[in-house]
Design a protein that fits this description.
Elements (H helix, E strand, L loop, with lengths): L4 E6 L6 E6 L7 E4 H5 L7 H23 L6 E11 L2 E12 L5 H14 L1 H5 L3 E8 L1
Parallel strand pairs: 5-6
Antiparallel strand pairs: 1-2, 2-3, 4-5
Length: about 140
């Protein structure tokens, strides 16, 4: 399976701007710029998209891991914080809260650590990945 996205950039790094679009068209010419990346401009940025990808991938992987352990989650909510420092993504912090009937905190944490280590986006990232897992 292959997926794709396209980025178009116009102008210099600081004064220029661009758009990003995805194959699914969910993002369709979404604007990004220096301000959306390093300040508080309107639009998206690569780190925000990485955070969304990691949160989504981890949540889905955790659901599969829990299912494999005999548990069906009612809800998994994951927030991801990506840190960009000196031109490199240095940290991805995952915060997950889940409602999983019948599971112990110990088993949930074991499943969450498995998902953190084995979701495809975790495997892709070359940075420190932290996890704070909470049962609701």
């Amino acid at each position: 399976m292959k997926r794709n996205a396209t980025a178009i950039w116009n102008g210099s790094g600081k004064e220029g701007n661009g758009t990003m679009s995805t194959q699914s068209t969910l993002l369709n010419n979404a604007q990004y710029s220096y301000k959306t990346r390093f300040e508080d401009g309107v639009g998206t940025n690569p780190e925000e998209l990485i955070a969304a990808a990691h949160a989504g991938c981890f949540s889905m992987k955790l659901s599969f891991v829990l299912g494999g352990a005999g548990f069906t989650p009612e809800k998994i909510e994951t927030k991801c914080y990506i840190t960009l420092d000196n031109g490199a993504v240095t940290t991805s912090e995952l915060e997950v809260t889940a409602s999983v009937p019948g599971i112990t905190a110990e088993k949930f944490n074991e499943c969450a650590e498995d998902a953190k280590a084995n979701c495809p986006i975790s495997k892709l990232l070359n940075c420190n990945i932290t996890l704070n897992a909470t049962l609701a």
